Amino acid sequence: MSHEAEAVSSRGGGISAGIKTPRPKSNWLKHEMAVPKPWAVNVGRFALFIIMLLLWEIGARSGLINSFFWSQPVEIARTWWIGVQTGAVWQDTLYTFRSTVIGFVLGTLGGTLLGLSFWWSKYYARISEPFIIMFEAMPKLALAPIIVLVFGIGIGSKIAMGFAITVVITTLTTYNGVRSVDKDLVRMVYSLGASRMQVFRKVIVPTAIPAMISALRINIGLALTGAIVGEYIGSERGLGRMIFYAGQTYEISLIWANIFNLSILSMLLYVLIGKLESLLLKGFMHQK
Amino acid sequence: MSHEAEAVSSRGGGISAGIKTPRPKSNWLKHEMAVPKPWAVNVGRFALFIIMLLLWEIGARSGLINSFFWSQPVEIARTWWIGVQTGAVWQDTLYTFRSTVIGFVLGTLGGTLLGLSFWWSKYYARISEPFIIMFEAMPKLALAPIIVLVFGIGIGSKIAMGFAITVVITTLTTYNGVRSVDKDLVRMVYSLGASRMQVFRKVIVPTAIPAMISALRINIGLALTGAIVGEYIGSERGLGRMIFYAGQTYEISLIWANIFNLSILSMLLYVLIGKLESLLLKGFMHQK
Amino acid sequence: MNAYKMELENVSKTYLGTDGNPVNALGPIHMQIPNHRFISIVGPSGCGKSTLFNIISGLVETSDGAIYVGGNRVDGLTGITGYMLQKDLLLPWRTILDNVILGLEIEGIPKKEAKAKALPLLYKYGLKGFEHHYPAQLSGGMRQRAALLRTIMYDREIILLDEPFGALDAQTRAMMQEWLLDLWDDFQKTILFVTHDMEEAIYLSDEVYIMTSRPGTIKRHLMIDLPRPRKPQIITSPQFIELKEEALRTLSEETMRAYQQESAG
Amino acid sequence: MNAYKMELENVSKTYLGTDGNPVNALGPIHMQIPNHRFISIVGPSGCGKSTLFNIISGLVETSDGAIYVGGNRVDGLTGITGYMLQKDLLLPWRTILDNVILGLEIEGIPKKEAKAKALPLLYKYGLKGFEHHYPAQLSGGMRQRAALLRTIMYDREIILLDEPFGALDAQTRAMMQEWLLDLWDDFQKTILFVTHDMEEAIYLSDEVYIMTSRPGTIKRHLMIDLPRPRKPQIITSPQFIELKEEALRTLSEETMRAYQQESAG
Amino acid sequence: GGRSTASSGPDTAVPAKAAGNTKELIIAEPVHSTGYLPLYIAIRKGLFEDIDVKVVTLSGGSAHTNAVLTDQAFGFIGGPEHNAFAKAKGAELRAVVNIVNRGNVYLVARSGLDPGTDIAAFMRGKSVAVTQYGGTPNSIIRYLAKEWGYELDKDITLKEVDSGAIPAILQQGQGDVAVVTEPILTQGIQEGIWGEPFYNVPQELGPYAYSTINIKQDSITKDPETVQKFVTGIQKGLEFLQDNHEESMEIAKQEFPTMAEDLLKTTLNRSYEDEMWEFSGQISEEAVTTGLAVVRAAGLLKTDTIEYADIIDMQFVK
Ligand SMILES: Nc1ncnc2c1ncn2[C@@H]1O[C@H](COP(=O)(O)OP(=O)(O)OP(=O)(O)O)[C@@H](O)[C@H]1O
Ligand SMILES: Nc1ncnc2c1ncn2[C@@H]1O[C@H](COP(=O)(O)OP(=O)(O)OP(=O)(O)O)[C@@H](O)[C@H]1O
Ligand SMILES: [Mg+2]
Ligand SMILES: [Mg+2]
C-alpha cells in the first residue's frame, strides 16, 4: 500500500522495544484543529501594517509614489497628531460611533423581524420582494432633500441612513436562513402537534439565528457606511464630514488621517460585534 | 383526546358506508407545500404599486403631501416620458447596466476566491481580517480624488466601485459558508485519504456554493449601488449621474423618474440573477 | 364506537422521480388496527415503511386513500399520533432534557413540571449525566434513546415507532423492549412498530404485517397468538420458532423476488 | 514483518465536557490485531466504540497512546484504513453512484473506470435504479448500503465498520454478511466490526472484544474457534450457543453494573 | 483620456490621445450647470475648430483637478483658486479663459423673516444653511462673516449640508438663512420657502473669477495651438450667448430638457441681469484678487505668495 509507505515513519523494533517515537501527524489534523494563537495573529497584523507603511514612506520619499496625490505616512501622522491635540479626533469618532450603533441596532432588529415575518406567508413574501429591492436600489444620497425633510439634519438622518442600508440585507439574510431550515425538523415538531407559532418559535427562529448572527459583521460595516453618507448629507461633526472636508480642499493627509480613525472605529466595532457574536453563538447555538 | 376531537370531522357510519367525505387538511401542510401562483403574486404586486401611486397623487393634490419636496406621480411620469423621447433613458440605463454587470462579475468572483482561500489557513484568514474590514470601512465616495487617480474617469472607476463594494461581502459570506461545513463530512473524506486540495474541491467548495449563490442577489444590488456611486464621482452618462444632477438642480420629479428607471434596471438584474441562481442550484445542488 | 382504533383505506403514495415521471413508492394499503394492539410492520428496505408512517402522522400527504381514527377522517392532520422518526431529529440547540420535553412544552405544560416528569425516565434509560449535554456530544445509541423518550413523553393513544431500537446495544434494547411492553400495557396504547428484526417483531406484537417490496403493499398479515405476559425465554418455544420461520420464509421470498426482479429488469 | 497487523498501545481519549472538566471517554485500550482477521467489538452504547474507530482512522487525535500498523506508527494519519462511519455521511450534492466512487476518485482513478467498477456492486446490493438518485431520495437502509459500498470500494487492507448493518432488513443483512465474509476471504482484509448484535459478532468473527462501559476498556477478549467456512445454521450449534451465552453474560454484567453505578451516583 | 498610473505625477506629460485628425478634449465640470452654457453652446453649435470637446461631470473634492493633473482630462471648470491650491503643493495649472465672472450665489431668508437694511445686524445669531466646506458658497459666507466681524459658531452658525437638503432645512425652520445658487434660488422663491435674495453676491462683490477653465501648464508649453483653438471656441460660445438670447435659451432647453421652462428662463434672465458671464473671456486682476481673498478668509489657501501670474494665462484670449 503506497499510501501507508509514504506517510508513516519507520519504528524499527516491535512494540516491546518501548521506545516512544515522536507522534506523527497528518497535515489536516494540525490545520482543522489548530486555532491560531491570538498573539501570533496580532503580531502578523501589526507587522503587515508596519511593512505597508514603510513601503509607502520609502516610495514617497524616493518619488516612486507621488505624494501630491497619495500623501505619505509621516505627513499623515503629523496631521493626525494635530487632531488628537485639538480633541477633534475624539469628538468626531464618538459622533460617528453613536449614529452607527443606533442605526445598526435598529436596522438589524427591523430586518430580522421582517425576514422572519416572511416565513408566515410565501405570498406576502413574494409580493414584498420587488418593493424591498426597489428600496435597496434607491441611492440614499440622492434622497437627501427628502431625508432631511423627514429626519432633519441632526443625528436622526444619520441613524436613518444606517437603518436604511442595513435593513434590506438583514431581511434577505434572515429570510435565506429561514428557508434553509431542515424540513425534517419542522415535520417532527409538527408531528408533536405544534401550531405554526410553535414551529416558528422552536424551529424557525433558532435556525435563522446563525444566519442573523453572521449578518451582524456585515451590518456593522454597512451601518458605518450609512452614518458616513448621512454625514455627507449634512452634519456638524463626524469622521465622514471630516473626510469630505479634506477631499474638498486637497488635504490628502487629512483624508488618510480620518480614514485611519475610521478604521480604528470600525475595528473597534468589529471587535465588539465579535464578542456579541460569540456570546450569542454560545447562548443560542452552544458553539465555541 | 381533545386534539383529535377539535380537529377532525365526524364521519358517521363505518368504513363500509363508503361515503367519501372531503379530505381535511392541517393548516401547515397547505402552507409548507403551497407555492404561490405566479399570476396571483404579480397581480398583488401590481395592485400594491398602483395603490401606492394613487395615494401619493391624491395626497399631493389635496396638499397633504408637499409636492415641492416629494413631487407627484403625474409629474414624474411626464418627466420620465421626456427622457424616453430624448432617448436619454435608454442610454443612461445601458451605461449603468454595463458597469454594474462588470463590477458584479469581478467582485463576486474575486470575493468568492478570497473567501475560499481563507479555508487554507486560519492564520492567514485572521491576519487579513482587519485589512478587509478597513477596506470595507473606507467611504468610497470620499476617496473620489484617489479613485479617479487610480481608475480614471471612464467606466473603469464605476467598475472599481462595484467591485470594491461587492468583494468584501462576498468574501465574508463565502467564508461563513466555508466555516459552516459539516465537520463529519470533512472527516469522512479525509478518511478516504484525501489531500487538502481534494477536501477543498469535493467538500468545501460544494458546501460554500449555496452561500455564494445566496450572496448573488445581495451582490447585484450592491454592484448597482457601486456603479451609482462611481457615477456620482464622475461620469458622462448613467442613471446615477442623472440623479445627482437632478438633486443639484432640485428636480425632484427627475430624481424619482430616474429612481424608477433604476428600479426597473435592478428588477431586471434580479430576474437575471434569479434565473442564474436556479440554474446554479439545479446544476450544483440539485434543488428545485 | 368503532371496532377499530384506526383504519387505512386504500392508502398510497407516488413521488415525482428525478426524471419527472411519477414513482409509485407505497400502496395501496389496507389496514384495520384494533384498539390497544401492538402491531409490527416488517418489510424489505425501501418498501415504504417510513413513508407509511409519515402519512399516518399527517406529515406527508397521501396520493390516494383515507385514514380514519376512531371513525374520524384524519389524513393530513398532525398531533393525532406520537411518532418517532427513523432519524433522531433532536434539535441541536437544545439540551437532551429540553429535547425530551419538547412535546409537553408544545402542549403547554410548564417547563418545570415537564422536566420533573422527564428526569426519572432519563435516569432510568441510561442518560443520567447527559441531561444537560447537547445532541452532538452523545453517541448514536444515546441519541436514539432520547428521541424515543421524547415520543413516549408525548403521550398519544397511537404511537408510531420507526426502528426505535436500531442503534441500541443488546442489553439496552432488551430493557427498552420490556419497558415498552409495560408502557403499552399500563397506558393502553396502540403501537405501530417498524423493525428489521423478525424475532423482535414477533416477541413484542399481537399482529405482524409483512410488506412486499416497493411499492409496498401488505403481503401477509400474521396473528401472534402467544400468551401474554411473555418471558424472553419464549423465543426458544416451538410455537415461537414456528411463527418466526413462517414469517422469515415469507419475507425472504419477497426480498428474493425483488432482487431477481431488479437484476432481471 | 511483525506478528501483528495492527497494535493499539495504551490508547485513550478525553473530551472536554460542557462544564469545562475533562471527560474520560475511552481507554486505555490495548489491542493486538493479527493479519487477515475478522474482529468484532461489542460494548454498551456510549462506551467509546465510535471514538476508538475515529482514532484508528486518524480522524480524532488520541489523548494518549500510540497505534502501529505493520510496525509503523500511524496515529493521526488518514488513508491507512477504510472506515465506514456510524452516520452514512453521503455527500448530498452527489448521486449515489458518484458517492460510492468517491474513494476511487480521490485515489485518482478515472471516473469512468471507477463507475464501471461500482455499477455491478450497486446492482447486486439492491441499489439498481437508484444510481442517479440523490441521498435525500433514498430510504435509510439504502443510504447505509451505499455508504458501506463506498467503504468497500476504497480498497484498504484494514477496514473499520461501525454498525454497518444497523438499518438493513434481515434478508439484506444476511446477504451483506455473506458477501462481507467472501470479500474478507478473497482479498485477505483485516476487518474491525462494531455491532450490537452478539449473534452477528460471533457468527462473523475470529475474535470478539467486549468493552466495559464508559470509559470503555477491554473487558473480555473472546477467541471464536468455530471452523470456517461457517454456514448460517451454525448459530444453533451447541458450541455457538455456549459462546454466545458466555459473551452475553459478560456484556449484560457490564451493562447492569453501569446502570447501577449511574443510578447510585 | 488614458488610465493613469500611480507614478505619473502632475508634471509628467502624457500626450493626449489623438483620435484621427480631430483631437478629443475632455473638460471636467463639477456639476451640470446653466452657468457653463457658453461651453455647451460652443459644443452644440460646433464652434470649436479641429477639436472635439466632451464634457464629463466629475464631482467629489479635488477629483476634477486630479483628472487634469493626470492627463485624463484636458481641463476643468472651477475657480482659479484650485490652481492656487495645486500650486501650493507644487503643481502648475493655469486658467486660460473666463466663463462665470461673478460670485454666483445669493443669500435668502426664510419666509416671514425680514432682513431689513442692516444686513450685518440681521445676520447676527442666525443659522445659515450652506453647502459643504471647501465649496465656493461656503467660502463666501465665511468671507462675509469675517467682513461683518462675526465669529463662526458664536455669532453665526453654519449648517453645512448637501445642496439638495437646503430647501428642506429652511422649510422646517432648522435654518434661517440659506446660501443658494440657481435654479434652487428661483424654485424656493416660487415655492414660498424664502423670499427674494436680500444679499446679492454678484452685485455686492463685483467681478469674481468664479468659473474659469483651467488646464495644465504643460499643455500650454507643449501644444499651444490646441489651447488656442479651444479658447477661441469658448470665446465664440460667449459671444453667441451675448448676442443670441433666444437661441441660447433653446440650447439651454436641449441641455436641460427636464427643467421647467419658466424656471430656466428666470435663471437665464437673472444671469444676464447680474452680469454673470464675462463675455470677453478675460480674467481681470480684480476678479482673481476677490476670489483668492474669499478662499483665504475661509482658511482654504494658506500661502500668501501666490500671485495672478502664477495661476492665470491670458495669452490665448484675443
Ligand atoms: N422525497 C422523495 N423523493 C423520491 N423518492 C422518495 C422520496 N422519499 C422516499 N422515496 C422513495 O420511496 C421509497 C420508500 O422509502 P421509505 O423511506 O419509505 O422506505 P423504508 O421502507 O422506510 O426503507 P428502510 O427500511 O430502508 O428505512 C424508496 O424507494 C425511496 O427511494
Ligand atoms: N465531541 C464530544 N464532546 C464531548 N463528549 C463526546 C463527544 N463525542 C463523544 N463524546 C462522548 O464520548 C463517549 C463515547 O461516545 P461514542 O460515540 O464513541 O460511543 P459508542 O460506543 O460509539 O456508542 P453507540 O454504540 O451508542 O454508538 C460518549 O459518552 C459521548 O457522550
Ligand atoms: Mg425507513
Ligand atoms: Mg457509536
Automatic annotation (TrEMBL), chains A, B:
Which family does the UniProt entry place this protein in? Answer: Belongs to the binding-protein-dependent transport system permease family.
Region (Disordered), start-end ranges = 1-22
Name of the protein in question:
ABC transporter permease
Transmembrane ranges, per UniProt, are 39-59, 101-120, 132-153, 159-178, 253-273
Membrane topology, as annotated, equals: Multi-pass membrane protein
Quote the InterPro entries the UniProt record gives: MetI-like, MetI-like_sf
Q: Which organism is it from?
A: Paenibacillus vini
- Start and end residues of each ABC transmembrane type-1 domain: 89-277
- Keyword S-adenosyl-L-methionine present in the record's keywords: the answer is no
The root-end lineage is:
Bacteria, Bacillati, Bacillota, Bacilli, Bacillales
Q: Tell me where it mainly resides.
A: membrane
- The domain of life is Bacteria
PROSITE patterns hit by this protein? ABC_TM1
Automatic annotation (TrEMBL), chains C, D:
Q: Does the keyword Transport apply?
A: yes
User: Per UniProt, which keywords does this protein have?
Assistant: ATP-binding, Nucleotide-binding, Transport
Domain ABC transporter, residue spans: 6-238
- Protein name in UniProt: ABC transporter ATP-binding protein
**InterPro entries, A to Z:** AAA+_ATPase (IPR003593), ABC_transporter-like_ATP-bd (IPR003439), ABC_transporter-like_CS (IPR017871), ABC_transporter_ATP-bind (IPR050166), P-loop_NTPase (IPR027417)
SMART domains reported for this sequence:
AAA
Q: PROSITE patterns from the xrefs?
A: ABC_TRANSPORTER_1 (PS00211), ABC_TRANSPORTER_2 (PS50893)
Matching Pfam families: ABC_tran (PF00005)
Q: Which GO terms describe its molecular function?
A: ATP binding
